[in-house]
Amino acid sequence: xxxxxxxxxxxxxxxxxxxxxxxxxxxxxxxxxxxxxxxxxxxxxxxxxxxxxxxxxxxxxxxxxxxxxxxxxxxxxxxxxxxxxxxxxxxxxxxxxxxxxxxxxxxxxxxxxxxxxxxxxxxxxxxxxxxxxxxxxxxxxxxxxxxxxxxxxxxxxxxxxxxxxxxxxxxxxxxxxxxxxxxxxxxxxxxxxxxxxxxxxxxxxxxxxxxxxxxxxxxxxxxxxxxxxxxxxxxx
Length: 236
Hints:
Layout: E1 3-7, H1 13-23, E2 29-33, H2 34-40, H3 42-50, E3 54-61, H4 65-77, E4 82-86, H5 91-104, E5 114-118, H6 139-153, E6 157-159, H7 162-172, E7 177-180, H8 200-206, E8 210-213, H9 215-218, H10 223-235
Parallel strand pairs: 1-2, 1-8, 2-3, 3-4, 4-5, 5-6, 6-7, 7-8
């Protein structure tokens, strides 16, 4: 069964910590993205770590190799368990990130954070890609090419929608990590700003390792009950 990551895409650190305390024990991973990180900074990561939970740092590093290497080095020092970078930054950029992690940790250390490459955001449709891929390639073909480069660079896995997961899993096997955002539980009637969504059950069946769920949890009247429902759906 895949692990659920709750996205802390809220306005304030106190609100984020309230969610963590409420959901601790039901889920282990919490996502810190650019919104809450810009507001609260590294201190929020330290507070979540002290609560005994794991941080998925989703800042999608995308810059020249030296800059990304420095960002990864700083993230490692904060004790995050997983972080993202854009695969479109190129193989050399991704390799620089991998080298930084391996400088700090033994390759198979349990404390080594996972590096996962963002492929095509779940908020993007095929029409949105016209600006960078006018040849009308299917999104799944683009994701597969980017995943191939991520694997070549030594990343642990990728971030992709559930619509591409089955193909990626067949191509790269069981040890390649697949993180899937855009998860909408059965009965949740809005896709919000997402365009390529899936239920927890369908993403699990396709082979995702981690499911990132935000608004259906933090926007619920009872986030704990919302998580219980998601976990029940996965077990069924």
